[in-house]
Amino acid sequence: MDDFLEVAGRLIAVPSTADRPAELERALELVLAYVGPGFEVERFSSRGKPSALVWRTGPRPHFRVLLNGHLDVVPAPDEMFTARIEHGRMYGRGTQDMKLAALVMAGVFRDVAADLPYPVGLQLVTDEEVGGYDGTAHQIERGVSADFVVIGEQSGLRIVTGSKGILQVRLTATGTAAHAAYPWLGRNALLVLNEAIARVLDRYPVPAAEAWTTTVTVARIETGNRAVNQVPAEATAWLDIRFPPEDTAINGRDAAQVRAYLCELSGVEVVVDSLGPPHRAEPDTGFVRALRAAANEAGFSGAFLRKHGAADGRFYYAAGTDAVIFGPGGDGQHGPGEYADLSTVEPYRRALTSFLRRKIFSGVQHGS
Question: Which residues are marked as active site?
Answer without folding.
Answer: 72, 128
